[in-house]
Structures are given as structure tokens and as C-alpha cells.
Amino acid sequence: MSGSNLCTPVPRSHDHVSALVDLVQKRAETQSVKSSRAHSSIKMTAASLAIVSQSGESLSFFDLATGLRTAQITSLPAEPHDLAHDTKKNLLYISHTYRHGHYFAHGDICHEVSVVDVEAKKLVKSIDIRPFGGPHGICIDLNTRLLYATVETGFENGGGLIGISLDAHKVVKSIPSDGRAHWLTITPDGKKAYMSNMTSPFVSVLDLEKDVLLTKVKVTGSNQGTVSRDGKFAFIPTPSIQPMGLEIQPTIEVIDTATDKIVRSIKTDLGVSALHVTSRGAIIAAKYGFEKGADPTALKAQAGRLEILDEVTFERVGEVESGLFPLSLLSSPDGKIGFAANVFGGTVTVVDLVKMKVIKTLDVDTTRKGDKKFHQGAHGMVYLA
């Protein structure tokens, strides 16, 4: 499945984030602005959202206070997927997975990661990762100065994880996952990675210090997972995307990171494409649905939902509607605002996680390009201070 950012690990160093969002009282009337459909008004300091349009082959920047698009980089290499930010050098990294399509139906595998200068709003470099291919989920460890990227090809038994030096822009480490690796989440101490191999019946657990595959946790396929703030648990949504309906009961598997054993299974009413833990201890679950009877490769999505769970008790805190197939999740540094990139709708749903209300919808790329079979207009996201 094309699709989180959304795989940025919980940072071990917090010097690059600060509380940037200040909620104010809701306006009595709804105000519409270009590129944004506002539901209520919030006041934000100078923060913006960078968001990739996969089929649009572009990167847009939105002012979060106004909801206005402030810049756009077009004609990126086909097709961009996930996004990560090196805050030290103020560079964005973009993974390119397939020339067109999605996980279940796609064109040629890509072999590059693009580099964008945030200040100049310019594509400045392309990193060739061959012999590896199909980079997708990416995240940055600022302490080791590595960009981690899942890859679908390049290892004897399929895909795995590569580490790219943020300074040399070269692949400096590689670890097999024994599956078609697509997503990852990393523990806060940077020592372990939990890899989603989508349709493979296991999650791969990697030791990032010894660069080895530690073990495989048996699951019924998997999507984008996340890790608790204290690093004690990994949360993995299962199974992989089910375009023909819920043939397998969707669950969130809770893995003890000390033993790498599943200690709890939480059933969900809809399939979950991604999970994200905020700094306030809320788990955001992106729930999806498809039109019944549709061609499974066409992925005819219905409006999704965002369910909020308590990180410790797993009790349901609330739920709001999102757009067509929420795929990538993100939250503000203070954990008060959530973002969901709705890949097939080409929008981003912005949510007040305190009041459990949709604040606004950002229109990123809502129109299918004539030469594209699939419209995938909103994917990887990064919150920029």
C-alpha cells in the first residue's frame, strides 16, 4: 500500500520541537479560505505543514494558522511517498517507491530518495540507493545522523531496512527483514525497529546497534505501527489493507518491546491503516473502508475515521470523521493537534485532539491527473516550526 509517514520515531532529543500551537475560542461562523475548508478557528505561531502528493508528484507547504498553501514544488520524480525532516540542516527527504500505482498494483520499483532545501523550497539532490529498491517508510535519528528507510528489494529474501548517512548521503548500513518491508517504527532509544512487511505474516524486529534481524512476531499482515512514549510497547495494526472487506478481524497488537511478545490484542470495528502516539499519550488510529464489490486493485475508498485511544488503558477517548482513506498520521509537538493525510481524497484532516473536533481540511491535491490510473493526492507529512 502506498502511503506515514508516517514513521518518524519518538525523538530522543527534544531540542528541535517546542509547543507551537495555542488553541483559542471557536468562532461562531465558519470561514472558508483558499486551499482550506475551515470548521473552526485556531491560533498558531509560525508553523507549517509539508505534505507530499504522490500522484501529483509535488510537495506543498501550508501555513497552519491560515490554512493557505504558501509554496509548492512540482515535477518531483515519480512517485513521491513518505517524508522526513533533518532539523539540523533543514532538509526534507522524500522516498520514491514506485513509478506509479500502489502496493497491490504498481509500475517499476524506484531506487532514489530526494533531498529538498526547506528554506529555498528547491529539490537539491537525489540519493541513489541501489542495489536496494522501493524505499517507502522513512524516519530520522538525529543522534546517529541516519535516515532510516524501508526497502522492498535488494536483500536475498526480499526487503529490509537501510541507513543513509545524513552527512555523506550514502547508504552506510543494511538489515534484512525477510519480507517486503513497507513501514517502520523505532523505539525512543533508537535501539530497535519494528518493521511492517504488509502482507507477510510477521512483523520483523531489528537490532539497530548490531544490525541484525532479532526475531519475527507472528501477525496476520500489518500496517504502519507506532511505539509508546516510554518505549515499552509497540502497537501494530493488523492485518494488512483488506480491499475486499473485513475477511480477517482487525486488531491492534500490543508488543512488549522487552520480550517481543504480543501481550494484548485490541479488536477494532474497521480496518486500521496507521497508528500514531502523540506527546500527550493519545493513540490515533486511522480507520478505513472500501466500497463493497469493487475491484480490489481499484481501491475504491470510503470516508475514513480517526479514533483516539488512551495509550495506557486503551479506552476510547473519541472519534471524528476524516477523508478518503486516512493513511499518514502526525501530531503537533504539544500533542493538541492531529493531522491525517487522506491519500485517495487528496486532503489533510486537521483535528483538535483536546475538544475532539475537526478544525479544518487542507485541500492538497484533490483532482486526478489525466495520465494517472490512481489518484493518491496526500501522503507523507512533516510538521515544520
Automatic annotation (TrEMBL):
Highest taxon in the source lineage: Eukaryota
Coiled coil regions, renumbered to chain: none
InterPro entries in the record: Host-pathogen_enzymatic-act, N2O_reductase_N, WD40/YVTN_repeat-like_dom_sf
PANTHER family: DIHYDRO-HEME D1 DEHYDROGENASE, PROTEIN NIRF
Name this protein carries in UniProt: Nitrous oxide reductase
